[in-house]
Design a protein that fits this description.
Blueprint lengths: L1 E4 L3 E7 L16 E5 L1 H12 L3 E7 L3 H13 L6 E3 L5 E7 L5 E6 L8 H5 L2 H5 L3 E5 L4 H9 L6 E5 L8 H6 E7 H8 L7 H9 L5 E5 L5 E5 L5 E4 L12 H14 L4 H15 L12 H6 L1
Parallel strand pairs: 1-4, 1-8, 2-6, 4-5, 8-9, 9-10, 10-11
Antiparallel strand pairs: 2-3, 6-7, 11-12, 12-13
Helix pairs in contact: 1-2, 1-9, 7-8, 9-10
The chain binds adenosine-5'-diphosphate.
The site of adenosine-5'-diphosphate (ADP) has 18 residues, from helix 9 and helix 10.
Amino acid sequence: DLLVVGSANADLVIGVERRPGPGETVLGSDLAVHPGGKGANQAVAAARLGARAALLARVGDDGYGRLLLDSQRAAGVDTVGMLVGGAPTGVALITVDPSGDNSIVVSPGANARLTPQDVRAAASLFQASRVVSAQLEIPLETVVETVRSLAFDSRFVLNPSPAGPLPAEVLAACDPLIVNEHEARFLLGDSAGPAPEDWARALLLRGPRSVVITLGAAGALVAEGSTTSSVRVESPRVDAVDTTGAGDAFTAALAWRLSLRESLAQAAAFAARVGAAAVTRQGAQDSFPTADEVFAR
Ligand code: ADP
């Protein structure tokens, strides 16, 4: 089974011709409200692919919180770990431009109240999970407690998004650390070399057991601590409509395939196909494919 420890947000999405500058107002499309947040997205993406997935997250006692609970249940996610109350449900304000690129402002809300104690109280979920996946839209101390709560033989997958500093204890547990170009550059700072292969090597030196760098339309790069070389994984060529959630779909797919004991390279190759499928449709959770849809391409 797969356990996702992370955020649950309501995504408030408006399409715009272009983004407003400081002090400027632009008109956009009608508002669309979608369940989102990296944790909720990953759990839904995994369940839609056929995984047995559970979500450990916190939402507010409000309409958006109910939207999130309903959408997880509808996707078949185990919601026993979804906690309610403490603050309003997290919200993401998203603008999408005609090229499909998005800009996002997040109000963490209840996500900021997912505590290490909440993690300790979910011990039975950890015992049942072969792979545990986290992101950084929850407090860092909660991610640290997640690493400490892993069952003896379970594997930890981290997408450090939004990019932030990572304690050595968390880095050492990652197998893999999954970063996009922006997150790789943030973690490496000035020491980032010119090519993704350089970033992979440099990131491995920081302590994770393996590293996956997602490269948008160019696919991904996989590097494991036991080898010095990295492997390129192709992404199918698709017409990108909306990249929201592509990284979440990728991470969920990879985590699920790892839970089936596939190799990291195999899991990443499958994940790239899932990520590519996700950019061909609008939205985050609405865009996630079933396994049949991935294999039919
Ligand atoms: P993030 O969304 O976290 O920035 P990426 O943009 O690297 O991450 O996308 C994650 C994965 O989704 C990529 O590795 C790739 O497999 C797939 N993907 C993203 N954008 C495209 C695209 N334009 N065409 C094909 N695949 C894509």
